[in-house]
Amino acid sequence: MTSRKLAAGAVFPAIEIPMLNGGRRALPTPSGNYDWMLVVVYRGKHCPLCTKYLQELNSVLPALNELGVDVVAVSADSEDRASAQMREVRPAFDVGYGLTIPQIEEMGLYISGPRNGVDVEKPFAEPGLFVIDQDGIVQIIDISNVPFSRPDLEWIAKGIGFRRGPMKEAPINGTYV
To answer: Where is the Thioredoxin domain (predicted)?
Structure first.
């Protein structure tokens, strides 16, 4: 197995996803008055840790929005499965569904098959978190192959504030050549 990982400092791939609230969203284009975007890829309905993480995201959302960051969570789940999970999460952020394997691969995420979970219908993306600036450049990236290894969302918000403030002129971390 080989995999191509998306690098810090790279342009985030143009990916269009259907949204639970209707319509489609183009990643990494923020909505409204936001100029940065946080994309959280979660495993799906079968993952109770994802439900907890997305509930935590709700509590950090005001700080992220204050920093000018739009937030979208997305999985490979069907619309029905994503809707069922979001009834428990009650997100204040946009939620997309139906990520395809080629889209997951474009983001450089790990992919697991149905045997890597309970009540799983098809291959799914393992967790990923991407902070993307106004130019579509990945400023912060975190990918994992397991559901229990994810960045602390409060620290992500603080890090974005630092990146947009005192470190805005510094090179993107991890891009030394």
So the answer is: 6-165
Looking up residue 123, the CATH number of its domain turns out to be 3.40.30.10
Nearest to 76 by CA among 39, 103, 49, 106: 103
Contact (CB, 8 A) for 141 and 155: no
Question: Is 132 contained in some domain?
Answer: yes
Q: Which two tokens stand for residue 32?
A: 């409204």
Separation between Cα atoms, residue 2 and residue 72, nearest integer Å: 28
- How many domains does the structure of the chain reveal? 1
16 within domain boundaries: no
Q: In the prediction, which pLDDT does 153 show?
A: 97
Q: Which residues of the chain have a pLDDT value below 70?
A: 1-3, 116-118
Cβ neighbours around 174 below 10 Å, total: 11
- DSSP state for residue 116 in the 8-state scheme: G
Could you tell me the end-to-end alpha-carbon distance of the chain, in angstroms, rounded to an integer?
Answer: 27
* Domain interval for residue 83: 32-164
CB atoms within 10 A of CB 135: 11
